[in-house]
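Aim 2, interim progress: modelling of the nicotinamide-adenine-dinucleotide-bound target.
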Amino acid sequence: SFLDVPKEPCRVLVTGAAGQIGYAIVPMIARGVMLGPHQPVILHMLDIEPAAEALNGVRMELIDAAFPLLKGVVATTDVEEACKDVNIAVMVGGFPRKEGMERKDVMSKNVSIYKAQASALEKHAAPNCKVLVVANPANTNALILKEFSPSIPEKNITCLTRLDHNRALGQISGRLNVHVSDVKNVIIWGNHSSTQYPDVNHATVTTSSGEKPVREVVADDQWLNSEFITTVQQRGAAIIKARKLSSALSAASAACDHIRDWVLGTPKGSWVSMGVYSDGSYGIPEGLIYSFPVTCEKGEWSIVKGLKIDEFSRAKMDATAKELIEEKSLAKSCLN
Ligand code: NAD
Ligand code: LMR
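Predicted structure of the complex, ligand included:
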């Protein structure tokens, strides 16, 4: 079968690989969680000089884990070497927020990293490299990366809102006491921040009598329009409060989900949320990386078109777009 044909290894870059998300995601990638159980991988891990020794420790553990799919490890503090010929780039490197901070408070440290790394990716990555930005402020870092790597196609630069999407699925399934895989087609609109809009108006749940709208089955608009939304918006802060560290295993898992669905396709009849460069769909200004519902096929995402947007949603979608416009100008002022 085609499974017997040896596949070329895929080179996957993880920046910030000595950090918490890095430590959670590299074994997932090496086990085939990101690219499937038949795709060999070569891991490229980048971190900065102060973390070089810890990074080498991660490299040693990857060797010790004897992963059948892992065909090589590059562990380096040299960004050019790290980016060489990579097919997938998962950009986690940066500084996480601490309790009491908003994600944009880490702006000035992180956007300058994304400007510098844009050039290295542009020069050294494989053609058609797919980029996922995880580090906060994720949408704006992705936008800066896009602006400073003009030769990378804009459709190849995305940011992570799948964690928020999965959080929304988790809240609905908990409320209904059904398994999370029975809920689908929630949407995260906008920024990976507390202004994001988790939208259930098109979401469905599989019940014993077939697929039903989430609104109908939950039958509590008051909860859906208030507490549900704020719980998802504030979940990152709740994790920081509980762990004294930001989310890592769920972020790593969501990053694998994001890349897997982008590369291998979304299941028929369902969509996921991805932060992508706006083409003006749903009246969202071009020039922003904004989270939309997307389907993926043959390695390409497309925004789900034609969904009906009511007034409540419209206001929330515009509010998060407005925050992204402000972040964009703040980022530009940080870079000047
Ligand atoms: P962490 O501090 O544990 O790890 C970050 C790593 O990045 C560190 O090892 C650090 O040395 C490294 N680093 C710093 N500057 C770098 C550079 N210029 N190049 C390469 N590496 C560099 O943090 P973490 O918990 O792993 O979180 C990483 C980022 O992901 C943070 O910005 C966090 O806020 C963000 N995050 C995003 C989401 C999301 O859903 N989008 C979810 C969770 C966390
Ligand atoms: C999250 O959503 O968990 C991350 O973005 C970390 C944070 O700062 O909230």
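The two ends are 56 Å apart (CA to CA). The first helix runs from residue 20 to 30.
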